[in-house]
What does this fold into?
Amino acid sequence: MCHDPDAPGRDGFYHWTVWNLPPETTEIAADTLPNGAVEGITSWGRSGYGGPQPPFGTHRYQFFVYALNTVLGIPATTKPQALSAAMQLHIVDQAVLTGMFSALDIFRK
It folds into this structure.
């Protein structure tokens, strides 16, 4: 799950949700997902990864990874809050990686 907690709005902005990754997954290449993985609906209103696009200032982009004790039987139309609720009783461990991106970074390329 990729979340921007600094985005306007009560819940921030969800840039990506994906679940049911096989435990042996060590990498996810661009535009591919391991067999069995499911992408859910993001704050963009569609599935797939939507990269950083802060409208102002510097934002944190938090990539959460959860180890679950089950495969989730939820549809690809699941939104972030429903995904979080479905996972809650099944989380064995979790980690977060936070990256920073600024609206000004777009002009530094």
Q: What stands out?
A: The longest strand covers residues 91-102. The helical segments are 80-87.
